[in-house]
Amino acid sequence: LFVGETGVGKSTLINVLTNYFRNGSSDNIKIAVKSKYFKVTEEDLEHPSSEFDVNDQTSSQTSECFHYDFEHSTHPEYKFRFIDSPGLGDTRYQDRKNLELIIEKAVNEKYLNAIVFVINGRQARYSEVIKNTINGFNNYLPKSLLENNLFLIITQTKKLGAIFQLDLFKKEVAIPKDVFYMDNLMFSCNPNEWRSDSLSKLEVEQSWELSRKTIVNFLNAIENSEFKSTEDFQKIAELQRDLATQIQKAIEEISKINGAIIQLLNAKHECENNENILEDSKNYTREEVIEFLEYIQTPHKNMIYAEYVDAGGRFVRRRQTFKEVINEMKERYDRHFANSIELKVEEKMRCSNLEILVKGVESCYNSIQRDIESLKIISKFNFDRGLKSAFDKLKSIAENVSDENLKTRQLKRISEIEELSKI
What we know:
With about 425 residues, the protein is an alpha/beta fold. The protein folds into 3 domains: about 1-230, Rossmann fold; about 245-280 and about 340-420, no CATH class; about 285-325, no CATH class. The chain has helices at about 10-20, 95-110, 130-140, 145, 165-170, 185-190, 190-195, 200-225, 230-280, 325-380, 385-400, 405-420; strands at about 1-5, 65-70, 80-85, 110, 115-120, 150-155, 180, 230, 285-300, 305-325. The strands form 4 sheets. A 4-stranded parallel beta sheet has the order 1-5-6-7, with helices on one face. A hairpin with a 4-residue loop joins strand 9 (about 285-300) and strand 10. The longest helix is centred in the last third of the chain and has 52 residues, at about 325-380. Residues about 55-60 have low confidence and may be disordered.
């Protein structure tokens, strides 16, 4: 599997291999992948949609992963399959899609003998593009393949002319099992120019002879490389997808938390207002005092007959107190008393909704943490540009949480997971 930055010559390597296996020469160049100077000659190997604008080196010339199968002429028991992949660091910002294509192809192949990083030997240091490419691809590379099946092909230069810092690659990625150098002049220069000049043609032919010898060494290294299952590619891809899903879900849930807080505060406010109105309306009766005169008979005892007889009477002033219901206030009280039950239920429901959201976010955090821990076990996981962008968005959303206690808890949890990612 050939992987690397856009424009480093992965497709050219396919043409180099085509000429090796099909006995090409400077006078009879075999082409499987069209290029700036050559049209396809090996139609049985051609993939019609494999190339875009061959003059544009800022965009990947390969749109998908294509494989090319060859039989060894002197060792027919060996069959080789080389996979050309889309370039990473594409100016059309398709890295995520291209990575998915590479992983899908690797998984479908089931086994790989080698992952071959192709790098421009004329670049002394990593550009930001190369750094991001390497970091992004590291997140998808199984350790099982990196530790035993990683090779490096440095293009556009001979070994003595290479200025690429190999030590940096070993530090940033892994120590390759072997390193090969190819300048591939025969494919990168205009044939109309070097064929008409004897010295230039001699230089191209010498370059091709060196390339042939390098290919022999490269193929021997592949033959001696134990094939590895690509099952870990699938596991890594699934974990990466779940990681992205859980981060997005956490962003959505945190956004909902602020809405839930506002709804809860509104419910509490309505409850308080309703209770205040109830308090003001509970005295919906008033006392009325009425004064009136009551006639009281005055009895007189008849001494002869020993009995009381009516001897007349008198008026006595009396007072009577009674409660009068104020209908308007009573109706108001009854109405808000009925509302009180509904509002308390509403407040309780809003509180429960907030708790569910907070627990949901915490569940997302736990899933994110588990995914990262699992990825660290089976891949060269690192906190790349894409992951940093996702975490920045997560923190930005959490900063907007209006409840200070909840906001602090969210930011603390996010920071903990971010630190775990960087270890």
